[in-house]
Amino acid sequence: MSRDVLVVGETLIDWVPERPGPLATVAGFERRPGGAPANVAVALARLENPPLFWTRVGDDPFGRYLEGTLADHGLPDRFVERDAAAKTALAFVTHDESGDRKFTFYRDGTADTRLEPGRIDDATLSDCDWVHAGGVTLSSGPAREATLDVLERAAAADCTVSFDPNFRAELWADGETFARVVGDALAHVDMCFATVAELEALGFSGETPTAVARATVDGSGTHAVFVTRGEEGALAVAADDAPWPAAAVDHPGFAVETVDTTGAGDAFVAGAIIALREGRGLEDTVAFANAVAATATTAPGAMTALPTRDEVAPLLADESD
């Protein structure tokens, strides 16, 4: 793993409620660093593989707080941009008694929507063997073109490209635009990480989650699709020409005391990237990624709950006993 990983996407402030319930009834919130790609980048660093991270925050107190947080986690600041003309994005999180959550975004013209094409040069991509991006920056602004540009050039540079659509309906003009733009992105993607609902929003269908994943592999041209299923674990389906003997894997996940599911999917992505870059097979990859995700749900917040390898190890050890 001598070459770099590059993660692309938003960094924002998650406002986490003091208790479960609808947003209108919650009086207090705690500030937490967030954004799905930011969570993936920090999760990779926590798992001992700090990536390059291309993101953009406002020149405001929240942006400076996020810059400091990323630095504290060992992420290089080479592509962490500060925008003097825009604010940092905010997301208010609500969750129910089971830990499931919803987001309300304040993101109109914020810094993360203003990523500019060409910022990641060809020399940087030639030093990377993996590029990962999220779908939120595809939803609006010049960040859409910038994200599509870096995915296309990463694929041309022979990087492994992974993608998480991270569908948030309120950020998109309509479902048709989401499906069209993300479809354009998938043309450059080797691996897609998604929920069944996200894959269905992209137009793929099937009678089972595995069938939906298979339809996505066959219809999008990706080499593998990983489907996260919350407490039911995750599955993966690979194309016939993928380099794994198992074409489909379904892992039931791990039973843990769940506190907050925010960031669990991002933890899964980071775990899968680590495992695949280490040369693990599809079955071991899904198990390791599930263990990372499950451990991340045992503490509140997203970035603040991301685990180290030592914290993940007990779940894997229990499974092997």
Automatic annotation (TrEMBL):
In which domain of life is the source organism classified? Answer: Archaea
The segment(s) forming the Carbohydrate kinase PfkB domain are: 3-309
PROSITE patterns in UniProt: PFKB_KINASES_2
- What family does the Swiss-Prot or TrEMBL record give for this protein? Belongs to the carbohydrate kinase PfkB family.
Q: Has keyword Transcription?
A: no
UniProt keywords (A-Z) are: ATP-binding, Kinase, Nucleotide-binding, Transferase
Name a GO molecular-function annotation: kinase activity
List the InterPro entries hit by this protein, alphabetically: Carboh/pur_kinase_PfkB_CS (IPR002173), PfkB_Carbo_kinase (IPR050306), PfkB_dom (IPR011611), Ribokinase-like (IPR029056)
Species assigned in the record: Natrinema pallidum
- Recall the taxonomic lineage recorded for the source organism: Archaea, Methanobacteriati, Methanobacteriota, Stenosarchaea group, Halobacteria
The answer to keyword DNA-binding applying to this record is no
Q: What is this protein called?
A: Sugar kinase
